[in-house]
Amino acid sequence: MFRVPQTCKGVHPLRFWPFIQARCTFSPAATTSLQFISDGYENENKDLDFKLLFSSCTNVHLAKRLHALLVLSGNAQDIFLSTGLVNLYANLGDVSFARHTFDQIQKKNIFTWNSMISAYARVHRYHEAVNCFYQLLLTSCLQPDSYTFPPVLKACGNMVDGKKMHCWVLKLGFEWDVFVAASLVHMYSRFGFLGVARKLFNNMPVRDMGSWNAMISGFCQNGNAAEALDLLDEMRLDGVKMDPVTVASILPVCALSDDILVGILVHLYSIKHGLESDVFVSNALINMYAKFGNLGHAQRVFDQMEVRDLVSWNSIIAAYEQNEDPITALGLFKEMQLVRIQPDLLTAVSLASIVAQLSDHRNSQSVHGFVVRRGWLMKDVIIGNAVADMYAKAGSVDSARRVFEGLPVKDVISWNTLITCYAQNGLASEAIEFYHMMVEHIEIIPNQGTWVSILPAYSHVGALQQGMKIHGRVIKNCLYLDVFVGTCLIDMYGKCGKLDDAMSLFYQVPRKSSVPWNAIISCHGIHGHGEKALKLFNEMIDDGVKPDHVTFVSLLAACSHSGLVDEGQWCFNVMQEKYGIKPSLKHYGSMVDLLGRAGRLDLAYNLIQNMPIQPDASVWGALLGACRIHGNFELGSIASDHLFEVDSENVGYYVLLSNIYANVGKWEGVNRVRSLARDRGLKKTPGWSSIEVNNKVDVFYTGNQTHPKSEEIYEELEVLTAKMKSLGYVPDYSFVLQDVEDDEKEHILTSHSERLAIAFGIITTPPKSTIRIFKNLRVCGDCHEATKFISRITEREIIVRDSNRFHHFKNGICSCGDYW
DNA sequence: GTAGGGTTAG
């Protein structure tokens, strides 16, 4: 209760009253209170209930009116009222106004300071909260009290600040206050100082629910699942029951440690004790079930909620988004807007991810605009990264780069996002360049995500030595080998031709999930070791690891590369019947490839005709490729008709078709296809090959003449071609699409990128050492033949990895047995 | 008029 002081005689403070009444809605109680002010001005003895007045201000607008009123009535310097205003603004989330009001107060007491400090802590402006505490010590003659410390302890961002604060607690003698003690316990356990936290906890003379929760939640936020669960058990033995706070702390830990059993038990406990009605508990349940991939349970919890807040909506949207159901997630987002819940930054993060999954570039721009309009891009790096990733997944590399450049703060994930963006959009060299730029920023410390981004780029261009450097860094920096980093390394060694190293690494990584198994099976496949791939698959089953759709893509490809037709068909059946995996386009593509290469064109065509889904270019392309191998131009033209319907842009298919015609001497057809490709103005995917010499990757494009060693390379090729011809090499012009004279055709074949790279290898590496080449497209048939001769002439092992598999050339023979 | 321990993230 408050009595209006006699300060502002002369001006009626409430001459604005009708004006305020017209614009603001106060509760009836508040209206009465305001009337009281008015009356109090007339009759100075009336008591006013300002508490009511404060509580009736439900938005910043109303608060400002009340504030103006207090200023006008001369009450702004009153210590009770002004502190009330600081709190009011803080509760309404406007901490800058709270600070402004705070600064205006001339005689602050400890309540005022405590209000300001907790205002900062509540909105997570921790740095300012701590600064405010030190300001209190330095600029006022006031002593902090037991109310001061809990928010300040929460605000300590690191152990150095935390220890300093602990000293102040001890100095001023507040360590036995139950709230302060709980805050200390929580702070130490949050930073992983579990021993200290435990000691403080054990020494507490009084323990309430909050003390237990402080200790448990500290463990939880630190990811110490086992300790958290142990303590929970101890609490139970002590006869203390879990409350909503305990449950909301423990549920994320169940998800983190993949402990679905405890998760369900805690859920049952919550139902039994009526804790489900707590919105934090329900939200935590939704999140936990989402992480277990159990959308049904998540949805059920959401449906049963009586009160849903922003976090509930964000959680259920993210649940669907992260379980690859962007359509439902988008529907929920719309529903959320219908019930007038305002989205926040985290909603936008999910939204960006939803749009990325739908790979709809137009919507990408709307989401980007949505985020920019609200100023969120400048506010938090997380949303910036999400938007960059959204563009990356939509293939808009330039947009992703622009978002990245515009970020006020870039963290390691921003860099990782861009590296992945380049790598996944086929720009491996750019990804590598970007990684080198990142390394120059010493404040950015690479993490596991960085290795996962950069290793595939190194695999892609075959940079074995640089990939091994990363392996070295991983060993140095990480205590254990993360499954994903481990798998990337396996993939890198495998794709760089080091199958043995891939294998020994495989036995070092955790093999509970299908991820590393898929990688090692795929590695054996591209090396043409189909039998070994099947053996690994059986081992995987014996180990109790469940194969997924990726496993079968790798496995079918492995069978296809090795000509294991029966085994491939067996896999295709097992996949559907035993594991209930519906074949995707990739599986069909592999099957058509497998059957087609083996000459079972009838079966392959039959399979396509009976597909329950629409075949895409890769499926028809596989059939066309098989037709070229087996010289079946009738089926080839059927395949190409379908192919050009679904993809008329890929010049590779025109080359294939013209090869088919050329092989059976139908020059008319060859010319027709060539002019078709020309008329459609098709740009050929530039073929390139790379080779790593002395830690440096050199990339050669077909016809490249700008390389510093260009002259020597072409000289070497001329000498080689002459020797090859004397051994019986005849150039196969059917691999030349251009309509030119034969000697020009020979020149074109000789300047294919793989040959330039091989010649460069020959002149820059010691005699008889192995040459490793990478080609982005399939190796050309003529080059394949030529490389056999070159391996014989130079007595070198030449390993060529193309977009499909490995070719191991030695003594004039290729490991693929010309089955490719 | 002031305080601790809880849910969502790229």
Please give a structural write-up.
Belongs to the PPR family. PCMP-H subfamily. This is DYW domain-containing protein. PPR repeats lie at residues 109-144, 208-242, 278-308, 309-343, 411-441, 513-547. Residues 728-820 form the DYW domain. Keywords: Repeat. It is a single chain. Helix 39 packs antiparallel against helix 40 (651-663). The N and C termini lie far apart (91 Å). This protein is 66% helix and 4% strand. Mean pLDDT is 87; it is low at 1-16. It is elongated. The strands form 2 sheets. It has a 6-stranded mixed beta sheet with strand order 4-3-5-6-7-8, with helices on both faces. It has a two-stranded antiparallel sheet with strand order 1-2. The protein is mostly helical and 820 residues long. Among the domains are: 175-230, no CATH class; 689-814, no CATH class. A hairpin with a 2-residue loop joins strand 7 (806-810) and strand 8 (813-814). It binds one DNA strand of 10 nucleotides through helix 3, helix 5, helix 7, helix 9 and helix 11.
Quick description:
The chain has 820 residues and is mainly alpha-helical. Helix content is 66%, strand content 4%. A hairpin with a 2-residue loop joins strand 3 (688-693) and strand 4.
Class by alpha and beta content: mainly alpha
Largest sheet, if any?
6 strands, mixed
Distance between the termini: 91 Å
The portion of residues assigned to helices is 55-70%
- The poorly predicted ranges are 1-16
Strand segment count: 8
Mean pLDDT: 87
Shape estimate = elongated
Strand content: under 5%
Strand order of the largest sheet: 4-3-5-6-7-8
Task: Quickly count the helices.
Answer: 45
Radius of gyration: 35 Å
